[in-house]
Design brief:
The protein has about 375 residues and is an alpha/beta fold. The protein has twelve helices and 13 strands. Helix 2 packs antiparallel against helix 9 and helix 3 packs parallel to helix 9. It binds pyridoxal-5'-phosphate (PLP). The site of pyridoxal-5'-phosphate has 13 residues, from helix 4.
């Protein structure tokens, strides 16, 4: 039987006290996530280290993450966070003076700085500037030319929640360039099907919609990227003979594990695995549907209460779990403080507020937010 929203809610102690609607920032931990991490820490406190056991679990988590993204375990590598995932690509491709990367204006810095830093290699960063917060795939594709090596986008924009159609983008842009996706605002909330979207690289930290701990994340490395991307840091875990310490043999693993150098973050990986298990037990189609249903309530009801939405989706497919809004007169920081006082947790960003409900939130959480907002 799939895990229902109410059953998942019972695993989040925070939900008893707060209307926690801030999954686009940092997610709270569920009991099984914490207890899975605790098991590792307790065992290491009390028993000799059992490498083979933890390695078995690491590879199980890799498979489960693959399942969540509809791809195979061989394409998954663990990363520290989204930034370091994108940084793997920026640092590991062979760049030539005059190459360019095409990105999007108002992206989170994680998807800007790694590319901007390539300036020292003579690589130009071109940013698409949207007028209304939407990304038009055809217009974005027009920024690309024969020297565009990477098109770097977020699956969902962190500031206004616009969801990009990755399959449509690939169709608009053609086979080249490499399509690199920051999926942290989508993975765990929206379905991601890597069998369909011809993405070359995608990564996400675990700390938001994936409901995992901070300091761990996952990345998908597609076949084309695997061929072109050099591991920047190489260690025992990158090579085939990973238990051979004397007879050096720099033959890389044939799959995405080559990007993990050594000494993995076991507590983080196991915690992320426990969180991904919850999402898989609920089922991503059900999770997406419920997240959109709760967010749609806000999209419908906030304007009726005099608030402006930063994005009014023109097509259902543009929606995500993020709803950003502001009041024409009220000061966002004051509203934010007032909500927090009332136990309602959302984000304050620049001059607007951002709510982001997850599967386990209830209609009562949404009511609590709406009722606490002055009209
Ligand atoms: C689109 C996007 N990318 C990346 C991040 C964070 O990146 P990292 O996992 O490196 O902290 C955020 C966090 O707010 C984000 O919204």
């Amino acid at each position: 039987m799939p895990l229902t929203p109410a059953e998942m809610r019972a695993l989040f102690p925070i939900a008893q006290r707060y209307a926690y609607l801030d999954h686009a920032a940092i997610a709270p931990l569920a009991i099984p996530v914490r207890s899975t991490m605790d098991v590792f820490l307790t065992r290491q406190t009390e028993e000799p280290f059992e490498l083979a056991h933890w390695e078995r679990l690491r590879s199980q988590v890799r498979s489960r993450v693959g399942e969540l993204l509809s791809t195979g375990a061989e394409s998954i590598t663990f990363v520290k966070n989204t930034t370091s995932g994108l940084g793997l690509v920026a640092a590991g491709l062979d760049w030539a003076n005059g190459d360019n990367v095409v990105g999007v204006d108002r992206e989170f810095p994680a998807n800007v700085y790694p590319w901007m830093a390539l300036r020292r290699k003579g690589v130009e960063l071109r940013l698409y500037r949207s007028k209304d917060g939407r990304i038009d795939a055809a217009a974005l594709a027009r920024l690309c030319d024969g020297r565009t090596r990477v098109l770097a986008v977020s699956a969902v924009q962190f500031w206004n929640g616009f969801r990009l159609d990755l399959t449509g983008l690939r169709a608009a842009v053609g086979d080249e360039p490499l399509l690199v996706v920051d999926a942290i605002q989508a993975a765990g909330a929206m379905r991601i099907d890597l069998r369909q979207a011809s993405v070359d690289f995608l990564c996400a930290g675990a700390q938001k919609w994936l409901l995992g701990p901070i300091g761990i994340g996952c990345a998908y490395v597609g076949p084309r990227m695997l061929e072109r991307l050099h591991p920047v840091v190489i260690g025992t875990d990158s090579v085939i003979r990973d238990e051979e310490y004397f007879d050096y043999d720099l033959t890389l693993k044939p799959d995405a594990r080559r990007y993990e150098e050594t000494a993995p973050n076991y507590p983080g990986i196991l915690g992320m695995g426990a969180a991904v298990n919850l999402l898989l037990r609920a089922g991503m189609p059900a999770v997406e549907q419920e997240v959109l249903r709760l967010a749609d309530r806000l999209r419908d009801e906030l304007p009726q209460r005099g608030y402006e939405l930063l994005l009014k989706p023109s097509r259902p497919a543009e929606r995500s779990g993020i709803v950003s809004f502001r009041h024409p007169r009220m000061v966002p920081a004051e509203l934010h403080a007032r909500l927090r006082e009332a136990g309602i947790i959302i984000s304050l960003r620049a001059d607007f507020l951002r709510a982001s409900p997850h599967y386990y939130n209830s209609d009562a959480d949404i009511d609590r937010l709406l009722e606490a907002l002055p009209q």
